[in-house]
Amino acid sequence: MSTLNEKETLKIQVHNLKLALRRKEEQLIKIKEEHSTELQKVKKDYGVKLLHLRITLSPKKELTDNVVPLLCNILHSVTGVSAKEILSKSRKRDYIIPRYVIIHILRLEGKTLQFIGKTIGNQHHATIIHAIRNVEDWHTYPDYYKKEVEIYNKTKKLFEEVKN
Fold it and tell me: Which tens digit of pLDDT belongs to each residue from 62-112?
C-alpha cells in the first residue's frame, strides 16, 4: 500500500508541477506581449521625433541659385568638361566625376536632394544620394581614388576662394 500512495503522491506532485509550469509560461507570454507593446510605442515615439528633427534640420529649398553655373565653370577649368556635359544624363566617367563633385558640394552648401536633382539633369533624389555616397567613398579610400580626390579638392578650394 505504501508504494501505491507514493505513486499517487508522485502523480499529484507531477500534476502540480505541470500546472505551475503552465502558469509560468502564461506569465512569460503576458510579459512578452507587454514588452512588445512598449517596444512598439518606443519605436513609434522615436520615429516621430526623428521625423520632426529631419524636418526641423533639413535645409530650405531655394528656387533660384547661381552656385551651379559657378561650380560648372570651376570644374570646366579644372577638368575641361563643359557645363552641358556635366549636367547631361551621360554616364561617361569623365562627366560623372565632375557631376558628383557638384552634387557633393551643393549638399555641403545645404541644398535639398530634390533641388540638387532638379538642377543636375533632373535626377531622382536616390541618384543624388548615390553620388554623395560615392564621393564619401573617394575620401575613405583616397589612395584608390587619387584622380577623383584631386579634382574634388581643387574644385572645393577654388569654390571657397570665389565664394568668400
Answer: 444 688 899 999 999 999 999 999 999 999 999 999 999 999 999 999 999
- Which has the closest alpha carbon to 140: 128, 152, 149, 131? 149
Give the global pTM: 0.61
SS3 111: coil
Q: What is the pLDDT of residues 62-75, one digit of tens each?
A: 444 688 899 999 99
Distance CA 103, CA 90 (A): 15
123: its cell numbers: 535626377
d(CA 97, CA 149): 10
Report yes or no: 104 and 138 within 8 Å, Cβ to Cβ: no
Q: How far apart are CA 41 and CA 60, in angstroms?
A: 31
